[in-house]
């Protein structure tokens, strides 16, 4: 079976053609500079083939056409015909409180995604464009929407409500939603398999640490709390996002520097986080580590702050869950950043977390990294959001 997984951004579109059962990726790639000029990068993992082409992409439709055309290309393709694609799965950022799970895309689903645009103003329109481009180019092909927010919809009100007047929740749907849900779902499901115990007996904290970072508290296989909020700006400091800050900081900056709310939010989203703390050295954790190793104090502070805030969330979630059995690291920094993992876990011995320094050297591979006498099992589990999207798509399309 072959599922095409699409992750459409405002000027880019990532794709993977994969088998939802084996997880084999037949081809994957990226369309960039949509609306500007257009560039396609296409890879075939089995042969190591990589092709880059400049292709005009005035809209997402031309980007999808370029993807389909390279997938059936006699030289670079992996399909004889696009009829071999069984269904298409789309990553959609914001499902609001309407979607607790993935769904088949029909007019009602598209309208619901449209209704969530005020909550996801940058991503939902792009996700819709990806969906509509596929409808145009492959009419009648079954499509499924997989929401970044859906896994977190099991949170209780005490976790998702903000302590502000109720009308903002009831009329405007302002609440904690959380993101990276597909990753948190995939990784927590895998952790439950690896722990070999019923989900009901496991209290898990998942640390998805990448360019964007979020943590989730999972009990009985369900999300109980998560660090991102109404938007992906909340939680721990990230590559360029500030994470949790006192709202009065924004008010002060807007007043003193005559900034609009949008300008201030752009600063908090794009110019803050570890990039800002390192005095602009980098938003990339590898560069920060290199800087810190050379004695750059700002780089060290950025790393210290990041690890400190992640550690605080782990402690908070252990308290929220009433215990901790399993701690999981995933995404770029979580899977590869051994030094960061060690720094995060330092001081968590009182919770029963004890890393094995040798095992913790692992990068990008599934592995148990806690010591044999660690009460809490600590795992590195590489995330695979595309596989989760492909599996949901296959299941919903009866494939
Ligand atoms: P992601 O958003 O999941 O792709 O993660 C990207 C982040 O992972 C970047 O900040 C990278 O610097 C970080 N990363 C990748 N490899 C390493 C590594 N070996 N050590 C620390 N961070 C890493």
Automatic annotation (TrEMBL):
Active site per database record: 148 (proton donor/acceptor)
Pathway in which the depicted protein is active: Metabolic intermediate biosynthesis; acetyl-CoA biosynthesis; acetyl-CoA from acetate: step 1/2
Keywords of this entry: ATP-binding, Cytoplasm, Kinase, Magnesium, Metal-binding, Nucleotide-binding, Transferase
Domain of life: Bacteria
Cofactor: Mg(2+); Mn(2+)
Residue numbers binding substrate: 91
Positions with a binding annotation for ATP: 14, 208-212, 284-286, 332-336
GO molecular function, one term: acetate kinase activity
Entries under PROSITE patterns matching the protein: ACETATE_KINASE_1 (PS01075), ACETATE_KINASE_2 (PS01076)
Protein's cellular compartments: Cytoplasm
Chief location bin: cytoplasm
HAMAP family, A to Z: Acetate_kinase
Family: Belongs to the acetokinase family.
Subunit details: Homodimer.
Stated role: Catalyzes the formation of acetyl phosphate from acetate and ATP. Can also catalyze the reverse reaction.
Protein name per its UniProtKB record: Acetate kinase
Source organism of this protein record: Faecousia intestinalis
Phylogenetic placement of the source organism: Bacteria, Bacillati, Bacillota, Clostridia, Eubacteriales
């Amino acid at each position: 079976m072959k599922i095409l997984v699409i992750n459409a951004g405002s000027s880019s579109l990532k794709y993977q053609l994969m088998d939802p059962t084996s997880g084999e990726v037949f081809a994957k790639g990226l369309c960039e500079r949509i609306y500007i000029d257009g560039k396609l990068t296409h890879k075939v993992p089995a042969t190591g083939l990589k092709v880059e082409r400049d292709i005009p992409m005035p809209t997402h439709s031309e980007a999808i056409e370029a993807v389909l055309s390279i997938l059936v290309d006699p030289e670079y393709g992996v399909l004889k015909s696009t009829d071999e694609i069984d269904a298409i799965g789309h990553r959609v950022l914001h499902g609001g409180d309407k979607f607790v799970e993935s769904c088949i895309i029909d007019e009602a689903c598209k309208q619901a995604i449209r209704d969530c645009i005020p909550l996801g103003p940058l991503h939902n329109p792009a996700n819709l464009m990806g969906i509509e481009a596929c409808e145009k180019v492959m009419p009648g092909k079954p499509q499924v929407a997989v929401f970044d927010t859906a896994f977190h919809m099991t949170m209780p009100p005490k976790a998702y409500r903000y302590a502000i007047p109720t009308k903002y929740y009831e009329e405007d749907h302002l609440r904690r939603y959380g993101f990276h849900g597909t990753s948190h779902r995939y990784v927590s499901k895998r952790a439950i398999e690896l722990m070999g115990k019923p989900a009901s007996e496991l209290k898990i904290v998942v640390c998805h640490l990448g360019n964007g970072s979020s943590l989730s508290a999972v009990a009985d296989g369900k999300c109980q709390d998560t660090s991102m909020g109404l938007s992906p700006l909340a939680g721990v400091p990230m590559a360029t996002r500030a994470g949790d800050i006192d709202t009065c900081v924004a008010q002060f900056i807007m007043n003193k520097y005559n900034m609009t709310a949008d300008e201030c939010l752009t600063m908090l989203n794009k110019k803050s986080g570890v990039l800002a703390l390192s005095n602009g050295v980098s938003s990339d954790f590898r560069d920060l580590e290199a800087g810190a190793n050379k004695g750059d104090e700002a780089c060290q502070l950025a790393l210290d702050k990041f690890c400190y805030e992640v550690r605080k969330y782990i402690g908070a979630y252990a308290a929220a869950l009433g215990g901790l059995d399993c701690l999981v690291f995933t995404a770029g920094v979580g899977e590869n950043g051994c030094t960061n993992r060690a720094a995060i876990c330092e001081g968590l011995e009182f919770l029963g977390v004890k890393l094995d320094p040798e095992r913790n050297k692992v990068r990008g591979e599934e592995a148990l990294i806690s010591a044999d006498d660690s009460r809490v099992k600590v795992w590195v589990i590489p995330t695979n959001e595309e596989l989760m999207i492909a599996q949901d798509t296959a299941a919903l399309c009866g494939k």
